[in-house]
Write a structure and sequence with these properties.
The chain is of the alpha+beta class. Helix content is about 45%, strand content about 25%. The protein folds into three domains: about 80 residues, Up-down Bundle (Chorismate Mutase Domain, subunit A), CATH 1.20.59.10; about 90 residues, D-Maltodextrin-Binding Protein, domain 2; about 80 residues, ACT domain (Alpha-Beta Plaits). It has nine helices and ten strands. Strands 1, 2, 3, 4, 5 and 6 form a six-stranded mixed sheet that branches.
């Protein structure tokens, strides 16, 4: 029992030091929040978040598993966000809904959540500054792509800044959610960009529109299509390309696409969820 008491004493001492350091970290986070508010910077920085998590996972020597490290720091970062400002995250409700669970997994339990009945309502809360970010479903294992989300993305000026991929009951598939905000992200070093290409609905136009990706050696991960608004024969194609929009701009992708498409819209660049840890 003396050995047990000694070990517990050591844990108590470590916990005391951890608490001191967490409070010190949170005090610094509050100072960062003051700077962000003064300079009108976004309160949520996905590039900073993903770089920190990659670094921590890469530096860890165990026995903590990577998923445990990410879960612990999810709550640490959530608490830090909450002291920077009254952070509100909008999602499709009600409390306990799949969208809420996805948002909770991304932003933790310390921030405030607001609920809308529809995807368009989530985007409206973010656009009107009632929420800092919104979490909306993109892909459901049971029903595929969420057309309401694609239609809403086509109409909004908000920017996709992150994605959330929760595991489903079927281990072979995952549900996918997007985080949207009012400002574009900085590059994280391992990003992808969603674009909407507006093309004429006739044979050969999609093949032609995708040629610049092949010519510039840009990998495409996913695409879907939706009809343009009534009164038009155009089609909206949604594609995900490897790389941040700044990198794609430097490769002249957008200039080449503009020659093939009626319109090109950047819906946002965001860190990949399968990004390797630092050092790999």
């Amino acid at each position: 029992m003396s050995d047990l008491a000694e070990l517990r004493g050591r844990i108590d001492a470590i916990d005391g030091e951890l608490l001191r350091l967490l409070n010190e970290r949170t005090t610094i986070a509050r100072e960062i929040g003051v700077i962000k508010n003064r300079e009108s910077l976004p309160i949520y920085s996905p590039d900073r978040e993903i770089k920190l998590l990659r670094s921590l996972v890469g530096r860890s020597e165990g026995p903590l598993r990577p998923e445990a490290i990410r879960a612990i720091y999810r709550e640490i970062m959530s608490a830090a966000l909450a002291v920077e400002k009254d952070v509100a995250i909008a999602c499709v409700g009600p409390l306990g809904s799949p969208s809420y669970q996805a948002a909770l997994g991304k932003f933790g339990s310390s921030v405030r959540y607001t609920f809308s009945a529809e995807i368009a309502g989530v985007l409206e809360e973010v656009a009107s500054d009632q929420a800092d970010c919104g979490v909306i479903p993109l892909e459901d294992p049971s029903h595929g792509l969420v057309n309401q989300t694609l239609d809403a993305l086509a109409a909004t000026d908000l920017s996709i800044c992150a994605e959330v991929i929760p595991d489903s009951a079927d281990s072979r598939t995952s549900a996918r959610y997007l985080v949207v905000g009012r400002q574009a992200n900085a590059p994280s070093g391992h990003d992808q960009t969603m674009l909407m290409l507006r093309i004429e609905d006739k044979p050969g136009t999609l093949v032609s529109a995708l040629e610049p990706f092949k010519e510039l050696d840009i990998n495409l991960n996913h695409f879907a299509n939706r009809p343009a608004p009534k009164g038009s024969n155009d089609i909206f194609f949604f594609v995900e390309a490897d790389g941040h929009s700044r990198e794609l701009q430097l490769k002249d992708l957008f200039r080449e696409l503009s020659k093939k498409c009626r319109a090109v819209k950047v819906l946002g660049s965001y860190p990949k969820n399968d990004a390797p840890p630092a050092g790999e």
